[in-house]
Amino acid sequence: MIVMRSTRSFLILVLMLAFAVSLSAQSAGVRSSSATQIREEKLASKLMAREMPYRVILPAEYDAAKAERFPVIYLLHGLYGHYTNWTDKTKVAEYAAAYRFVIVMPEGGDGWYVDSPLSPNEKYESYIVKELIPEVDAKFRTKADRSDRIVAGLSMGGYGALKFGLKDPDLFTLVGSFSGAFGTSDFTEKTAGEIGKKVDSVFGPLDSDTRRANDVFLLIGAVADAKKLPFIYLSCGTEDFLFASNRDLDSLLVKQKLPHEYREHPGIHDWAFWDDQIREFLAVADRHLAAQKK
After folding, report:
1. Domain range spanning residue 207?
2. What is the pTM of this model?
3. Of 285, 284, 229, 250, whose CA–CA distance to 72 is shortest?
4. Is the pLDDT of residue 87 over 70?
5. Strand blocks (E) in 7-77
6. Which ranges of 140-242 does DSSP label H, i.e. alpha helix?
7. Average pLDDT in the 93-100 region?
8. Considering its fold, how many domains does the chain have in total?
9. Residue 284: pLDDT above 80?
10. Are 49 and 133 in contact (CB under 8 A)?
11. What digits encode the pLDDT tens for the residues 171-225?
12. S-S: 116 plus which of 1, 44, 61, 122, CB 3.0-4.6 Å?
């Protein structure tokens, strides 16, 4: 564990540069597929004390198959991103046309998908678990059960997806993380500049209960029953600044004998890698759901 944290601390030093690279990607506007629908939605959140926007991709068969229910994927964006990113910057709507998923893309702000102890209306974890999931299951024809619910994301969202899977294993059958930012609990303004300052404003001091409760390395180390966890899919580019920490996490999962798949591909922390990975992950998710039925 000491080696892991040492590696993660080193990686923190390049956060500003690497996240700046990811932010420089060009937006191409919302892509609508002739086979899928993209809907803009809002939820009047009591926990967040404001309307929270989200997008939904509906499968081609949704309108015609009135009696059918569909599995759902929650797709989380990264730091400095928004709920629009996945449809603006990848071909996810086109890739989804080959499958029968409802795909939900929530707004996560820069909140790291946690309940901040410093801001009473910044409760992104509780918002998604307690408000958004029930809303989606009530508003759309989803299969409202663990065996048909998936969560995935990139960078901050990859961290958030894994954290949801570890803290709420009864809600998800599969977790996907692409370039996951797993060293979050160690980020501070002193070690990571502006990124660390944002983490401080969400999590509080370095020794806070919130940091410990949301440290995915600690959560994995505390798993008592591997059979209760969702299957975990991890991927990271070999030139990504988070590559070493993703390898560290894979090593810990292997040590703990937790079911997962880890992939390394050439690539950096950018939308080209994430576009390729969401295409791959939809196929992984489809195979995973099919395998459960055998």
Report:
1. 2-292
2. 0.90
3. 285
4. yes
5. 37-45, 50-58, 72-76
6. 156-167, 189-203, 209-213, 216-221
7. 96
8. 1
9. yes
10. no
11. 999 999 999 999 888 889 988 888 899 999 999 999 899 999 999 999 999 999 9
12. 122
